[in-house]
Amino acid sequence: MRIDLHTHSTASDGTDTPAELVRGAAAAGLDVVALTDHDTVGGHAEARAALPAGLTLVTGAELSCRIDGVSLHMLAYLFDPEEPELARERELVRDDRVPRAQGMVAKLRELGVPITWEQVARIAGDGAVGRPHIATALVDLGLIGTVSDAFTSEWLANDGRAYVQKHELDPFEAIRLVKAAGGVTVFAHPLAVKRGSCVPESAIAELAAAGLDGIEVDHMDHDAPTRARLRGLAADLGLLATGSSDYHGSRKTCRLGEYTTDPEIYGEIVRRATGAFPVPGTGG
To answer: Where are any strands of DSSP class E within the chain?
Structure first.
């Protein structure tokens, strides 16, 4: 089985619609794909309706969190999307995305960048607006070559000149909320140092003690030594070690299925979940 547990659609900051994403996942030879848009489950219904035969959909979301001033992302799988407390927190994060993005546009304009909010809003469309949309605008303006080039201290990284903080969950609270909604939590790309400051391993140990289920090990932003280090940490802390593409369509260079999760790990995630269940494709 080929299993990719971290992808994004136009419901947040990807360039493929949810339907295009699941069709692309099947074409890429995947057996299982998780749709984990940022702080939203808005793409799940379309993905289900278009799910090809032979492909299983794992519903999820990537939750924005912050601990001790450091941003982190928490992948949440197979939770009940109607659970009110978690739904309310997702809504708070989503509602803060527009003023936050407008603040980053204002900072860029102060730096002399001829960017406009209208340009960013047009790129975001109906998706949950975020930094990749602003980065795309910088590419369109010819200031950088790729979206990834924007995630530096010069531009939009967590310590960047144009960075603006948004409402983010406490990760311990995120773990509690997801578990109360019957879901499973995995810390996304925990040592992606090029994105900015990372959470120390001591904090990962504290999250594990609080019920964190796993950490994303195999990821495009982790080099081989980092992946080995994280695999050892997962073993020491009793955490599940996952792998995934973090696919964003044409907005990033990674391909669907570029990194995958071991079937036994996937099976354990499904076993632990009680809020929702994987959706088998019937050729929609």
So the answer is: 3-7, 32-35, 56-67, 70-77, 184-187, 214-218, 240-243, 279-280
Would you say 33 and 7 are in contact if contact means Cβ atoms under 8 Å apart?
yes
Using a 10 angstrom Cβ sphere, with 0-12 exposed, 13-18 middle and 19 or more buried, the burial of residue 109 is middle
Residue 248 CB contacts under 8 Å (≥ 6 apart), including other chains: 8, 13, 14, 15, 132, 147, 254
State the amino acid at position 64 in one-letter form: S
Average confidence (pLDDT) over 18-25: 98
Per-residue 3-state assignment (H helix, E strand, C coil) for 55-76 = CEEEEEEEEEEEECCEEEEEEE
Residue 80 has pLDDT above 90, yes or no: yes
The SS3 assignment for 187 reads strand
> What is the rounded average pLDDT of the residues 233-259?
95
- Nearest one of 102, 271, 243, 133 to 186, comparing CA atoms: 243
Give the start-end residues of each E strand in 180-239. 184-187, 214-218
**Confidence bin at 189 (pLDDT 50/70/90):** very high
- Chain-centroid distance of CA 276 in Å reads 19
**Given pLDDT bands bounded at 50, 70 and 90, which one contains residue 128?**
confident
